UniProtKB/TrEMBL annotation, chain A:
Keywords: FAD, Flavoprotein, Oxidoreductase. Belongs to the acyl-CoA dehydrogenase family. Its cofactor is FAD. This is Acyl-CoA dehydrogenase. Residues 236-387 form the Acyl-CoA dehydrogenase/oxidase C-terminal domain. Residues 6-126 form the Acyl-CoA dehydrogenase/oxidase N-terminal domain. Residues 130-224 form the Acyl-CoA oxidase/dehydrogenase middle domain. One of its GO terms (molecular function) is flavin adenine dinucleotide binding. GO terms for cellular component: plasma membrane.
Automatic annotation (TrEMBL), chain B:
It comes from the Bacteria. It holds the Pfam family Acyl-CoA_dh_N. This is Acyl-CoA dehydrogenase. Residues 6-117 form the Acyl-CoA dehydrogenase/oxidase N-terminal domain. It comes from Vineibacter terrae.
Length: 407, 374
């Protein structure tokens, strides 16, 4: 039992480090310097340049076959690359959805012409992709979408609204799931397309979140014309296609890095006076610190177990499914508790210990418990896939979509 | 990254699992719980044949010369089976104590017999309903003689040798020492005490001028006990994780079979999410325990923190798994005839065995503070 690389992994790590040293700047130890805003236009430009460099070296998508511009490498090599890249000041995050979800979906369902046109520009960062699935009335139950695509000559016309779309305002293309037949049960009437986000009738508006930031968009489609050649998979098979995309999402969604955790809470407790003395001497504070520490370490070493499976060339076990169930509520609870330690001043967002990081964590925690699968959906997934318990009863299963809710 | 047990260790685990499934099904646990026997002697004998008790004892002393990682996989299977045997007392605690601090004569006298299971060890610290501290420990050691009462002592009736926390004179932490006692000599009276888990019998032991020797030096009792508990915490954690998993699957199997309101109860989110939470806690515990195992095996400087984290996580997981298993079963789970009780009982026994979760959380934070200050 150890945390060491195999000789092959160590060699690959060294190769990656050498390349990164030659092409990027190492991060300073200052954690705050990496908090770059995602929607800064300069940052996108820089990210595109960096993505192109990576693609030329084969590092943009290490597990993809060489014919698509990958390295034909292993998942553990991808992990090693990401671990090393995290030590450098490079702009990331714009291409994960496109390369992690959209393009793999095209790869599974589209022919060489489409792939020849879109894979390379996406890989090199020339074109950014987004994923248009969620709707105001279809969140956890994403098959309940209402955006319509109707036949019109040799193409389709799309009308409707998507929501929670990351990067819609700077994306060039997107994959969109639509309802093409409301006369059949909900899973059967869906069809997937890819779409040019610059098409007439597409409008992206930022959503202001409770945190005040706007990381997502709602996207409106008004009589947007799409040629049938941009259909992904068969008509009516959109759900099957969407599952391909979502399967890739599970691999892509991780825990947000750079937040405050137990070390910062411990420091806060040491520096904060309560009525009966330093917070760190308070038994209930100590108990909480211990519980969150155990959770943090548990997640860290669960990840190490997953990496071990990858390193051995095995499928990761089901244990990797627990990460967000634990991390998201912890983020919220730990933030709230830290605020409490600050007394009434805990409501202030600037001139407090941590410069507002705990307050921000508490605020974002509320969203993180929902994004990419709610706490509840994730528990269903564990119960069904790991423990083999039955799926929830679906009362809408055999009812035509346009008859739902009419009783 | 190689954060896993080796193929050999996994094979050993499988072997122990099969042995226990065959020789120690729940009806054996029930027999010991219901009956008068101190432990399942035939299971203990079978384990001796497999050489399990000598796993971490050097070959020179009659063991197989393996180490902590092998003990971890055995512990997990014993936990899964709720095995009614004195393995934790004899192996995690007494064998380790003698291995580490015994004189050559003490090692020669005890390790070969502990290895083949003919001797059973127990660690006696408690003297009633309070933590054993320099203030509260009254069992005294003087002139090679032990006097006083220890209660409860795990496997105290079956044991042939005890490591006892004693007051050896002086003040403060330096007043406590560990003493080694051959329980088959005179001056030792044992009576059974009633506990929540009679599948692991406990005793009150009264020492009246019982012959004893110090183990590991005078005045070092507190320090040695802490060191001993760190390694044992990792092993107890694996035993707890095995138990938690067994309780989880027991609840899951019942939820797939029991119907209410026209469908199996496992289709309700209240049950699904509860069992998912058991799974989450068990995996958190397992990951912490793996790190504890790694630190224990390599004698890493991080062992005190890793062991405490493993202990806290595993206690939480087993307590939760055992209680929610009964809850999932409903009324039938509260009956004597149901097997749910074994895990409920054992989870509390193991939670308190080397100090409860509150004490271990306190240790964990103290150690984190020390590490951060360094």
């Amino acid at each position: 039992m150890d945390f060491n690389d195999t000789p092959e992994e160590a060699a690959f790590r060294q190769q990656v480090r050498t390349w990164l040293d030659a092409n990027a700047t190492r991060k300073s130890d200052d954690k705050t310097s990496i908090r770059a805003r995602v929607d800064d236009p300069e940052l996108l430009k820089k990210a595109k340049v960096w993505q192109d460099k990576k693609a030329q070296a084969g590092y943009a998508r290490i597990t993809w076959p060489k014919e698509y511009g990958g390295l034909g490498g292993t998942p553990i090599q991808q992990v090693i690359y990401s671990q090393e890249e995290a030590n450098y000041l490079v702009p990331l995050g714009f291409f994960d959805i496109g390369l992690g979800m959209c393009i793999p979906t095209l790869m599974a369902y589209c022919g060489p012409e489409v792939l020849g046109r879109y894979v390379k520009p996406a890989l090199h960062g020339e074109e950014v992709w987004c994923q248009l699935f969620s709707e105001p009335a279809a969140g956890s139950d994403v098959a309940g979408i209402r955006t319509r695509a109707e036949r019109d000559g040799d193409g389709w016309v799309i009308n409707g609204q998507k929501v929670w779309t990351s990067g819609a305002h700077y994306s060039d293309y997107g994959i969109i799931i639509t309802r093409t037949d409301p006369g059949v049960p909900k899973h059967q009437g869906l069809t997937m397309f890819y779409i040019d986000m610059k098409s007439p009738g597409v409008e992206a508006r930022p959503i202001k979140q409770i945190s005040g930031a706007a990381n997502f968009n709602e996207v409106f489609f008004t009589n947007v014309r799409v040629p049938d050649s941009q259909r992904v998979g068969e008509v009516g098979q959109g759900w099957k296609v969407a599952l391909t995309t979502l399967m890739n999402e599970r691999l892509a969604v991780g825990t947000p890095a750079g937040g405050v955790d137990v070390d910062e809470l411990l420091e806060l407790a040491r520096d904060t006076e309560l009525e009966d003395g330093p917070a760190i001497r308070n038994a209930s504070v100590r108990g909480k610190i211990a519980e969150w520490y155990v959770q943090s370490q548990g997640l860290k070493y669960t990840k190490f177990r997953t990496l071990t499976s990858l390193s051995k060339g095995q499928q990761p076990g089901p244990e990797s499914s627990i990460a967000k169930i634990v991390a998201a509520p912890k983020m919220q609870d730990l933030g709230a508790f830290a605020m409490e330690l600050m007394g009434q001043a805990g409501i202030m967002t600037r001139d407090v210990p941590g410069a507002g990081a705990f307050q921000q964590q508490w605020m974002f925690g509320a969203g993180f418990r929902i994004a990419g699968g709610t706490d509840e959906i994730l528990r269903n997934i564990v119960a069904e896939r790991v423990l083999g318990l039955p799926q929830d009863i679906r009362v809408d299963k055999d009812v035509a979509f346009n008859e739902l809710g009419k009783k | 990254m190689n954060f896993d047990f080796s193929d050999d260790q996994k094979m050993l685990k499988e072997q122990v699992r099969k042995f226990l499934a065959d020789k120690c099904p729940m009806k054996v646990v029930r027999r010991v719980l219901d009956g008068d026997e101190t432990h399942a002697a035939e299971v203990w004998a079978g384990m001796a044949e497999l050489g399990l008790m000598g796993t971490a004892i050097p070959e020179a002393y009659g063991g197989t010369g393996l180490g902590p990682l092998e003990l971890c996989v055995i512990a997990e299977e014993l936990g899964r089976a709720c095995a009614p045997v004195p393995f934790s007392s004899s192996v995690y605690l007494v064998t380790e104590a003698i291995k580490r601090w015994g004189s050559e004569a003490q090692k020669k006298a005890w390790l070969p017999r502990l290895a083949d299971g003919s001797a059973i060890g127990t660690l006696a610290t408690s003297e009633g309903p309070q933590a054993p501290t320099p203030k509260s420990v009254r069992v005294s050691f003087a002139d090679g003689k032990l006097n006083g009462i220890k209660v409860p002592v795990a496997d105290g009736e079956a044991a042939t040798v005890a490591v006892v926390l004693v007051n050896s004179g002086g003040t403060g932490a330096r007043s406590l020492s560990l003493a080694l006692v051959d329980l088959t000599n005179g001056g030792v009276a044992r009576t059974r005490v009633a506990t929540v888990d009679p599948a692991r019998k406990h005793a009150q032991i009264t020492f009246s001028d019982a012959k004893a020797e110090l183990l590991g030096g005078k005045g070092k009792g507190v320090q040695l006990l802490n060191e001993l508990y760190d390694g044992a915490a990792v092993l107890f954690a694996f035993e707890q994780i095995g138990g938690a998993e067994a309780a989880m699957w027991m609840g899951r199997d019942y939820a797939l079979q029991r119907q209410a309101f026209g469908r199996v109860i496992g289709s309700y989110q209240a049950i699904k999410h509860k069992l998912a939470d058991v799974y989450v806690k068990t995996e958190l515990a397992r990951s912490n325990a793996y790190y504890g195992a790694m630190m224990y095996a390599e004698g890493g400087a991080d062992l005190p923190i890793a062991a405490a984290a493993a202990r806290v996580a595993a206690t939480d997981a087993y307590d939760f798994a055992a209680q929610e298993n009964i809850q999932t079963h409903g009324g039938i789970g509260f009956t004597w005839e149901a097997d749910t009780q074994f895990h409920y009982r054992r989870s509390r026994l193991l939670a308190l065995a080397i100090g409860g979760p509150t004490a271990w959380k306190e240790k964990l934070v103290t150690r984190l503070e020390r590490k951060n200050a360094a």
